[in-house]
Write a structure and sequence with these properties.
Length: about 575
């Protein structure tokens, strides 16, 4: 047995030796196949005046979405030297190698000079820049020669960040160079004054890049809100810029948080788009859905690109994140609150939050006061607002005032989304009938949308809240019934806490409330446990929580609605 193992070990050793010899042979053949090629090492020796591996190399990682800014900054510094050069590298191992590896004189580490690699990266919604993705810049900085390797992130090779590596004889000179590059990258950043959203990195949890978004143009007269509501928002978000100096002189903070809350479809996002369009010089960062997890990166960008606005759509999704501990407000929510509190008070940054479920946020915000300075309700439109919405979406369509008034009378509970869809269906109805839209089409489309057949459609547009499954405060999970089960039935563990409450008086220590120290094992020690109700009990509660349609008075002579 030992003889067999020794035999296999010897074979393995010989294989490694043969394989290494083959690699060296191929490397030699590659060099011989390109007569006259110049090695990167020789180029750096000529430029630096000494062996590059005798000099210190200082590297710095750069977030992938900042590569364009670094390229702009490095180009500005290098171009100050009229004799500056930019060279590429043909080494097949360049993506795995540091600058010191590329200039090593070890066998098999040949790095011939070749073409510079570029990548076209966006600098705006309709513009882009050819950025150095892999290249070495050779120039003089403050009279001394330096070499700078600039490389893009390459996740498939394990490089999650872009990187800059500097070789020079003087460490203090390198530190000064890197400081100037950082400052120029912020000053000339392509993000400044743009509207961007952060995109996920498919290889990890960090932000992988940015998407530039065209700045919307929505005038104030196209924002239908209760009287005075938009003025309140304007004063807090827009007007502050005109009195910034007075506030700072009085020692008042510029950083502010604004929360827009209300039912779905009432115009919160529309209002946000109006605010974004009304601040043309502001850097705006949009976070929604999965990108809500990048609040830390967004806050850092906002801090460096003031004036800035960080928009978090449907921020209640953070509070409902079930990937974390289910016993209290979520770590991501606290990260948001910390980010809002972590900026300097004189930072001209506004955090603009929207939510359909303010009850999920209210307690956490009350426990961490000062993050949100203004909370504004965006309610369901009243009758006059519904008429305004129809006129807004109808544009030049020839509907009479009488028809619009009737539409508003017959659409109680309608949202802005509902009004927009109703006008679209009006035009579709008329087009299919082969005539221009009329009052009859407007009212007919409304009748269609109000029919029982469109019940789900209405619900998806935020209409008919009483028809949708209501939140059951006794549901141990707090997210409604599971698909396929009768109302009120849900799968839950004994450790799951009862749901939220929207009263500010509650504390995180109340038994059965969000944040309670519920113990999944009643025998495990102190702390109240939360037992889920039995299925029959849950079904009974669900039945009791169903909305009851009022019956007509007994003396009306009309039969009661069937149950």
């Amino acid at each position: 047995m030992e003889h067999s193992q020794d035999s296999r070990g010897g074979q393995s050793s010989r294989f490694r030796e043969d394989f290494a010899a083959l690699v060296n042979q191929l490397a030699g053949e590659w060099r011989n196949a390109a007569p006259g090629s110049v090695e990167l090492r020789d180029v750096l020796i000529e430029h630096l005046g000494t062996e590059p591996d005798e000099l210190p190399t200082i590297g710095e990682d750069v977030p992938a979405h900042r590569l364009t800014d670094i390229d702009i900054a490095l180009s500005a510094v290098a171009d100050a030297d009229p004799d500056a050069k930019l060279v590429g590298v043909r080494s097949m191992q360049r993506h795995h190698s540091s600058l010191q590896d590329l200039v090593s004189d070890q066998p098999g580490m040949s790095s011939p000079v070749g073409a510079v690699e570029y990548a076209n990266l966006p600098t705006g919604p309709d513009s882009e820049r050819a950025v150095v993705a892999f290249g070495v810049r050779l120039f003089r900085y403050r009279g001394q020669p330096v070499a700078v390797l600039q490389r893009a992130a390459n996740p498939q090779y394990g490089s999650m960040s872009a990187r800059v590596e500097v070789v020079a004889a003087d460490r203090e000179l390198v530190a000064a160079l890197l400081a100037e590059i950082r400052a120029l990258a912020v000053e000339r950043s392509v993000l400044r004054g743009q509207v961007v959203s952060l995109t996920a990195n498919e290889y990890g949890p960090s932000a992988g890049g940015v998407t530039f978004v065209a700045r919307p143009d929505i005038p104030a007269d196209r924002v239908i809100l209760p009287e005075g509501t938009l003025d309140r928002i304007h004063r807090h978000v827009l007007s502050l810029a005109t009195v910034k100096a007075q506030l700072q002189a009085a020692g008042q903070h510029l950083k502010r948080g604004v929360l827009l809350y209300g039912p779905p479809g009432t115009g919160k996002t529309h209002t946000v788009r109006h605010l974004i369009g009304s601040t043309p010089d502001t850097t705006v960062l949009l976070l929604t859905g999965s990108s809500l997890g990048f609040i830390g990166e967004a806050a850092a960008i906002a801090r460096a690109h003031q004036p800035a606005m960080v928009v978090l759509e449907d921020v209640d999704l953070i509070a409902m994140d079930r990937h974390f501990d289910a016993h209290g407000p979520k770590p991501l929510l606290f990260e948001l609150l910390d980010a809002m509190d972590g900026l300097d008070t004189d930072a001209d940054v506004v955090f603009l939050l929207t939510t359909n479920r303010v009850d999920l946020l209210e307690q956490a915000l009350a426990q961490r006061p000062g993050r949100v300075d203004l909370a504004v309700e965006v309610p369901l439109p009243d009758r006059d607002a519904r008429a305004q919405l129809v006129r807004l979406y109808a544009g030049e369509l020839p509907f009479s005032d009488q028809a619009i008034d009737r539409w508003a009378d017959q659409s109680e509970g309608a949202t802005a989304s509902f009004a927009k869809e109703a006008v679209r269906r009006t035009v579709l109805r008329a087009a299919l009938a082969g005539h221009p839209p009329t009052d009859d089409d407007l009212l007919g489309a409304l009748a269609d949308l109000n029919s029982d057949a469109e019940r789900l459609s209405r619900s998806l547009m935020g209409v008919g809240g009483d028809d949708r499954p209501s939140f059951d405060p006794d549901d141990p999970v707090g997210f409604g019934p599971e698909p396929g089960l009768y109302p009120g039935v849900t799968f839950a563990s004994a450790a799951a806490p009862t749901a939220y409450s929207s009263t500010l008086e509650l504390t995180f220590d109340e038994p059965g409330r969000a944040g309670a120290n519920a113990d999944p094992d009643p025998s495990a020690g102190s702390g109240p446990s939360v037992e889920p109700p039995e299925p029959a009990e849950r079904a009974e509660r669900a039945e009791q929580s169903k909305p009851v349609k009022p019956s007509p008075p007994a003396d009306s002579g009309e039969p009661s609605a069937p149950s």
